[in-house]
Write a structure and sequence with these properties.
single chain, 280 residues, alpha/beta, Rossmann fold, seven-stranded mixed β-sheet, 12 helices, 52% helix, metal-binding, HAD-like_sf, hydrolase activity, HAD_sf, hydrolase
């Protein structure tokens, strides 16, 4: 898949802003890691079941504002006291197995196409930066912006410093435009959720991906293209059956996950030698 829009006379840099959950990957990125967190003793069985139920509701109907707020509060409370470096290590070690099968082939193709056209690719997500940053790196994104938890003494304090959601997403990409010189009128944005309408309105080329009912209506009223992503395809299948653009994107996923996993392994070995014991 490629975006055939022809850019007008250049007047600034171009970026493609991608929402993550249900736009690039087929489920909630934050909840996707509940199993490895459980395996490491960070979650009990009841918390895993609650996360699974929240994921079911998210996939079934799309999360509305109240659902997202409840999910945000639940996850913030659940993470209180977790060791930040341990979370980074778990995400790095399990990234390839968890995320690769969830990446929409159509999204990987679009990301590769934007990169080939010289555009920056930026992942913008309400999930936590410890989850979003390595996923964005693995996907070959130029930058990412995500929610940030307050940290005290290397552990989550149970409060959000920045919630990358709704209007805050639009403000985040406007800040990135100032920082990196993007001309938002020439930029692209992709999302599945009506909560991201402010972000979509902030760019010249908004795209609705697997849109919820409200976003679909907004897209139809404003003549925004509506895209359908249906193919989360395992890595090996992409290498053997898909376009060169997707092969390039999935190669980046493999290399990024391998590098992140190796770095995390070495970091954990050093910490264990200093007497570090993960919390149970």
């Amino acid at each position: 898949m490629t975006d055939a829009t022809v850019d007008p006379t250049p007047s600034g840099r171009i970026a493609a802003f991608f929402d993550l959950d249900k736009t690039v990957i087929a489920k909630s990125s934050a909840l996707a890691f509940s199993k490895p967190f459980f395996a490491q003793g960070l979650l009990n069985r009841r918390a895993v079941l609650k996360s699974s139920y929240a994921q079911f509701l998210f996939m079934l109907s799309g999360a509305d504002h109240d659902q997202v707020e409840r999910m945000r509060a639940h996850i913030a409370a659940m993470c209180t006291g977790w060791d930040v470096e341990q979370i980074k290590a778990i995400v790095a070690e399990t990234l390839h197995d968890i995320v690769d099968p969830l990446v929409f082939a159509e999204a990987a193709d679009l990301i590769a196409d934007h990169r080939l056209r010289g555009h920056d690719v930026i992942i913008v997500s309400a999930s936590g930066e410890e989850v979003v940053t390595p996923i964005a790196t693995a996907l070959g994104a130029t930058h990412s912006t995500a929610s940030r938890m307050r940290i005290e003494d290397g552990r989550y304090a149970g409060e959000l410093e920045f919630y990358c959601y709704g209007e805050a997403k639009a403000e985040a990409i406007q800040a990135l435009a100032l920082q990196y010189g993007y001309d938002l009128a020439r930029c692209y944005a992709y999302s599945d959720s009506s909560t991201d309408i402010p972000m979509l309105r902030a760019v010249g080329h908004p795209r609705a991906v697997n849109p919820d009912r409200v976003l679909r209506r907004e897209a139809v009223e404003n003549d925004w293209p509506i895209l359908t992503f249906i193919r989360p395809v395992p890595l090996l299948h992409r290498f053997t059956t898909t376009s060169p653009a997707v092969v390039a994107a999935t190669a980046a996923i493999t290399a990024g996950a391998a590098a992140a996993g190796a770095a995390a392994y070495l970091a954990l070995r050093r910490r264990h030698r200093r007497g570090f014991t993960p919390r149970g």
